[in-house]
Amino acid sequence: MAYPSLQLDSHYKSSLFTFQVAMEHYDDPKRLQGAITCSDDCAAIVQSSSTVTTLDTGTTQPKLPTISGLDSDSPALSSSTQGITELYGLNIDGEQDHVYTTNSIADLPSDSPPALDDQPLGDVASNLSELLEETKQAVYRTKQMKSSVINNRDNTMERTRKLFDTFRNKINEREQQVLQDIRQAADKKEKAIKLQLDKLLLLWTQLRSCLELVKKTRAEKLKDDQLTRRSKILQQRRDHLRIMKEQSKIDLTESEDGEVTYQEAEKLFVEMASKIEGFPVDPSKCTITFPKLAVNKEAIVTVFLKNLYNGVVNDGTSQINVSLTDQSGQVVLLEVVKAVGNGSYETAFVPKTHGNYELSVLIGEEHIPGSPFKLSILLRDYSNMSEKHCSTLVTHYGQKKLGGLRDVAVGPFGEIAIVDGGNNCVVVLDSTFAFVNTIGQYGCSTKLVVPSSVAVSTDGVVAVSDWGSGQVKKYSLQGKFLSAVGIRGSKDGQFNCPMGLAFSSDNVLFIVDSDNYRVQVFQQDGTFMFCFGGEGDAPGQFQYPVRVAVSVDNVAVSDLHGNCIQLFSHTGSFISKIECLRPWGIILTPDGYIIANSDGDDDKIKVWNYDHQRIVQFGNKGSKLGEFYSILGISLDHNGVMYVAEGVNERLQVICNM
Fold first, then answer.
1. What is the model's pLDDT at position 425?
2. 230 versus 602: which is more confidently predicted?
3. Beta-strand (E) ranges in 189-312?
């Protein structure tokens, strides 16, 4: 139950009491509630009034506010003191003025106690005296408890300090022990490693001694072999000399002084030995020749056998062993076809794939000089390419005529995709030039507006650059629309006149963005990767790029107004430049050659090798077979057959691999 708060002040003299009484039944001290402040010269009485009455004047003043309170379950009090606190609402501090409080007067019982005037003053004084005595005892016990708490605190702090000192000592001891263990383990390991190192050094010394011994032994053996070989040669020469004497009937010892000098005998001996058959083959004197090698073209290898004296050997067929090792490491033995006379022997083979091969030629078990030979099999022999190899003209598909061809590309299985500018579609033919279908023709929902270039990926995706829509559109070879890349603009992934296209071996798409003077690169799913180029005449910049080609190592871009072909890495880094008058169509062959047509040089087709040296050019402007007019696209299939798309002549011309 809550009771009103009271503050009793001790600033009055001993004759003055200020008090407030709050109790329900004056005759029951345990029901007394309130708060008392007292000093040596004053006392207070609690009553249930809401005002404070000054005894000597009788004047009435407002009740003072609550000063403090003490929770009944305070641990500072003993059980007896706690009981007094619960009964009387005391909050006691042994060194300060004592303030005792009650709660709000609104919580007093409804049956108010009798007025103070109705109670005997003697009883009240007696009750207060007893209360004061009990309070004094409680104060004493509280002070004792305070002293005990302080002592316990100091003892606990001391014990804690000692405990942590013990912990620190233990940790330091453990630290020293662990460090000692680490040092001992490291020393032990170091000794083991040093022992191992000493053993290795000893082994190295022994191996070095063995190596020196082997070198010495080998040198001695070589010396012995040389001596043995020299002895054999000398013996052979003696035998040969005997044969020569018998055949030539010449006595080499006859001279003016009856002797022949060594130099004269040697000269005469070699001269005559080279004309005499029957001497064995000397592998160190043998040689071979072979032509330029190309796929599906018979290659004839000629071996020349000679003896020790450079004389020809005409009976050495059985001694020649020729083998060819391809890129996969497979070895093929080649049969010597025939002896063609004068010490010459021929063998032939037909390469099926381009790349690097090894040709080994042995006489018995000994290689001839230079064997094994490194051979580069070209996709075709570009050096003899000419208009004479033009064999086929394609002008129609089905019953429909091709019109204004703009580009051509070859698919992974020999499919031929032609940009038909006259009909604004892509025509697909098979490898026999039979019509298959058209792509993007007028009337379909995904039609091509003004197609300009075409490329076919290794998985058969046909990419077409479309001037009219400012996009690059992708189709299947059957003509099904797959997706579109880009919109008109100059930001990344946008086009301002898309033209040349090329796929890399991993189907990354390179697109010439002509009017933005750059090449943009996209992943297979159409995600923009990067671009390179820019307007200008500096290396790596373009004045008007039109076509792009991609090989395993390089990217080539034909710059029509820049009169050059520029080579880049797959990341767009500039490599080199080849001068060419108004180049348009361009090819990078798998074997490193560059093929392009020169629009400013009578539409000639030109071929450069991997050193950028032009090795051949052919063709003139015209409409006959082997002549060209407005070449806008060229392509090469896996057999080395070239396809040429002509704009003005409105035809596809085929250059065979002869």
1. 93
2. 602
3. 287-289, 299-304
Fold of 283-377: Immunoglobulin-like (2.60.40)
Nearest in space to 424 (alpha carbons), one of 397, 446, 403, 455: 403
> Mean pLDDT throughout 325-341?
78
The residue type found at 303 is V
Q: Give yes or no for residue 610 having a pLDDT over 60.
A: yes
Q: At a CB cut-off of 8 Å and minimum separation 6, what does 363 contact?
A: 281, 283, 286, 305, 316, 319, 320, 321
What Rg, from alpha-carbon coordinates, does the chain have? 58
384-655 and 283-377 share a CATH fold:
no
Tokens at residue 232, please? 């054999």
User: Is-contact 266 309, C-beta < 8 A?
Assistant: no
Question: Of the spans 71-75, 169-173, 240-244, 638-642, which averages the highest pLDDT?
Answer: 169-173
Structure tokens at 4: 């009103």
Say what percent of the chain tops pLDDT 70.
Answer: 73
Q: Beta-carbon neighbour count of residue 224 at 10 Å?
A: 10
Q: How far is CA 68 from CA 52, 88, 91, 131, in A?
A: 18, 14, 8, 20
Coil, strand or helix at 425: strand
3-state secondary structure 448-500: CCCEEEEEECCCCEEEEEECCCCEEEEEECCCCEEEEECCECCCCCCECCEEE
Give the 3-state secondary structure percentages of the chain, helix then strand then coil, rounded to 5.
25, 30, 40
Please tell me what DSSP assigns to residue 306.
B
Tokens of 444: 């379909």
pLDDT computed for residue 547 by the predictor: 97
DSSP class of residue 278 equals -
In angstroms, rounded to a whole number, what is the distance separating the alpha carbons of residues 425 and 451? 7
Inform me whether the pLDDT recorded for 561 exceeds 50: yes
Reported confidence tier of residue 507, pLDDT bands at 50, 70, 90 = very high
Q: Domain locations in the chain?
A: 18-119, 283-377, 384-655
Is the preceding peptide bond at 451 cis, omega within 30 degrees of 0? Answer: no
Burial 238-259 (b: 16+ CB within 10 A, else e): eebbeebeeeeeeebeeeeeee
Whether 25 and 113 have beta carbons less than 8 Å apart is answered as yes
CA distance 238 to 269: 10
Residue 617: pLDDT above 70?
Answer: yes
Which of the 8 DSSP states describes residue 284?
Answer: G
The span from the CA of 380 to the CA of 595, in Å, is: 12
| Residue range 569-592, pLDDT digits in tens | 999 999 999 999 999 999 998 878
The CATH class for the domain spanning 384-655 reads: mainly beta
What is the rounded average pLDDT for all residues in the chain?
A: 77
Buried (b) or exposed (e) across 437-464, using 16+ Cβ within 10 A? ebbbbeeeeebbeebbbbbbbeeebbbb
The answer to whether residues 137 and 32 touch, using CB atoms and an 8 Å cutoff, is: no
Please, which residues have CB within 8 angstroms of residue 139's CB and are 6 or more apart in sequence? 92, 94, 98
- Determine whether 414 is exposed, middle or buried from the number of CB atoms within 10 Å of its CB (0-12, 13-18, 19+): middle
